[in-house]
Amino acid sequence: MPERFVRYHLRLSKSDAARLDAAVKKSGLSRAAYIRALINSLIPIDKPPPDYHLMMRELHSIGNNLNQIAARAHSIGDIDAARYERNATELRRVATRITEAVYEHRRLE
Question: What Rg value do the Cα atoms of the chain yield, rounded?
């Protein structure tokens, strides 16, 4: 984490402060991190919905199960390796796309 040497104090109207606080709360970031994102021309994203982490744990669990099945099938010599690899690759691709969709920052125009 870079060291931060400069401290800024600013005054906001009550309505501006309320809008900033609401946006910060939706993003899950600290006020400082939120403002730094804006300074870097990034639109801070809202924090993911609570069930996002549950769904991702479920996808990872499915991936772990696939790996266990593959290990067992490989040990007894009964596996369609190409089919397994296609499915495992697709699972990883979907998990990555979900994460990118949830955490993608957009640039200010």
Answer: 22
- pLDDT tens digits, 48-63: 887 788 888 888 888 8
Q: How far apart, in whole angstroms, are the C-alpha atoms of residue 38 and residue 43?
A: 6
CA 67 – CA 10 distance, rounded (Å): 54
Rounded Cα gap, residues 38 and 103, in angstroms = 16
- Domain residue limits, the chain: 1-47, 50-104
Distance between CA 21 and CA 31 in Å, rounded?
8
Q: CB count, 10 Å around CB of 44? A: 19
- Is-contact 91 59, C-beta < 8 A? yes
Torsion of CA 65, 67, 70, 76, to 10 degrees: -90
- The answer on pLDDT for 87 being more than 90 is no
